[in-house]
Amino acid sequence: PPDGGWGWMIVAGCFLVTICTRAVTRCISIFFVEFQAYFGQDYARTAWIHSIVDCATMLCAPLGSLISNHVSCQVGIMLGGLLASSGLILSSFATSLEHLYLSLGVLTGLGFALCYSPAIAMVGKYFNKRKALAYGIAMSGSGIGTFILAPVVQLLIEQFSWRGALLILGGFVLNLCVCGALMRPISLKEDRKSVPEFLEQDHVPETEKQDLKQMSVCSPLIKVWSHECLCYCSWKEYDFLLMPGFMVLAVSVLFMAYGCSPLFVYLVPYALSVGVSHHQAAFLMSILGVIDIIGNITFGWLTDRRCLKKHRYFCYLFAVGMDGLCCLFLPVLQNFPLLVPFSFTFGYFDGAYVTLIPVMTADVVGTSSLSSALGVVYFLHAIPYLVSPPVAGWLVDTTGSYTASFLLCGFSMIFSSTLLCFARLAKKIKRTHLRSLTSDTGMKQHIWTNGAMAYSVTAELDQKDAEFLAVDTNSCSNR
Fold first, then answer.
1. Is residue 271 domain-shared with residue 420, that is, in the same domain?
2. Which of 162, 174, 199, 246 has an alpha carbon within 20 to 30 A of 240's alpha carbon?
3. Per residue in 172-209, is it b (16+ CB within 10 Å) or e — as a string?
4. pLDDT category, 217, cuts 50, 70, 90?
5. Residue 330 maps to which CATH number?
6. What is the CA radius of gyration of the chain?
7. Residue 98 lies in a domain
8. Do 181 and 246 belong together in one domain?
9. What is the pLDDT of residues 112-165, one digit of tens each?
10. Are 285 and 348 within one domain?
């Protein structure tokens, strides 16, 4: 990887992609009140719009990776930009919520999915030594874009109505095509290897090895045409799914994603319901975006320090738990001066635990399976993103207040943190128990071992370990 040069243009392109995808998705919540008032629908039905956008973006992310790997990253991002822009433009002519479900939800979400993952993967191809810095700059587009777009979108709604605002956003998202044009493909040494690693495995017949070696130059898809090779590669890539630690992490991610999603949808409507002005409510979303970036950078830097590096697991639990506590206290915050500290606190810890998700996943499954495991972890966000906003809206319609919705979100995130905490404590207790059993078994073996046997065993060890074992065995024999 060049670690610079045109790679910085790739970073700039990915930065703009995150603005046009994740920041625009967050700003859709500003349209919530307008959609509800214009179509005369309840909270639950209106919330499906934001849910479908997030769910489609997560569910179709593997499709974006497939197109970029086997066609071109430029083609994938440009196609995604056209689809996302078309979805927003068609949404400006919507006559019903069902129309918005298809145009703003499915079509725009699919376009975002084709752009998001290929752009992030391209940054990893251009950078190796400075990969963390490159990703930090590229991913900061989500928070910075939210800070800028939230008040701009509110201003556009006031000046041109929600239809005009969606039309202008459609033109803005069309810049994804420009970002796609920046993604110049690069050929690395590992990409030019003609013989895949699984051809060296013993279970592959020699005839299939020769055929695959000859065909591997033609197309990367033919490399895994053999059924046995495909099964072997799939098992090696996803064998972490049966790990108990990853199963616990997956369950906790489901509850964490359920708790964090509704707040981005209902923060603006809740602020308006307690008497906050439209500009102040949009400003709360801007605060969330900026503090999210500060949480990403500062919490990541802090947990890389020597004093906290060994405790990053509990730092992640602390961040998720703090966000849960913020949701529990939100119903008692009834004015703008109290909602501003909430936005600061929730935004900071939201950025904090998002930064530590890859670190947590690497600690559980190891570095070799990190790429596949992260794909599964982010894929698990899709179902909670789809379900949680409508459920929260149904609770608002049923109870007439936001209290039940925010309490459910808070307890969900606290349960996610508590589940991982108990899992770590159980693992620690099990290790302590095994160590005690091992030490007891080792003592019994020392009692029955004489000096001659000890020296014959230690003959193959280095001198230092041999002397230690000999002294220990002699002391046991004397006793």
1. yes
2. 199
3. bbbbbbebbebbeeeeeeeeeeeebebbeeeebeeeeb
4. very low
5. 1.20.1250.20
6. 27
7. yes
8. no
9. 988 887 887 777 778 776 666 676 677 777 778 878 888 899 899 989 999 999
10. yes
Write the DSSP string, 164-221. HHHHHHHHHHTTHHHHHHH------GGGG-SS-GGGGSTTS-HHHHHHHHHHTTT-GG
326 is a domain residue: yes
Per the confidence metrics, is the pTM higher than 0.70? no
Quick one: pLDDT at residue 145? 83
- Cα 301 to chain center, whole Å? 19
Q: Which residue has the higher pLDDT, 139 or 334?
A: 334
Span 236-247, average pLDDT: 75
Q: Does 324 share its domain with 386?
A: yes
Using the structure block, give the residue that is written with the tokens 């060049």: 2
Q: How many residues does the chain have?
A: 479
Backbone angles phi, psi at 449, to 5 degrees: -105, 130
CB 179 within 8 A of CB 115: yes
| Inter-axis angle of helices 206-215 and 227-238, nearest 10 | 80
More confident site: 102 or 199: 102
What's the pLDDT score for residue 163? Answer: 93
Range of the domain at 101: 1-186
| Domain boundary residue, one of 147, 169, 186 | 186
One domain, residues 136 and 260 = no
What SS3 state is found at 148?
helix
Asked if 256 and 356 touch (Cβ cutoff 8 Å), the reply is no
Look at residue 442 and tell me if it is in a domain: no
Residues 149, 265: one domain? no
Range 362-390 burial, b when 16+ CB lie within 10 A, else e = ebbbeeebbebbebbbbebbbebbbbbbb
Number of domains the chain contains: 2
Tens digits of per-residue pLDDT, 100-125? Answer: 999 998 999 999 988 887 887 777 77
Examine residue 343 and state whether it is found in any structural domain, yes or no. yes
**Are residues 279 and 167 part of one domain?**
no
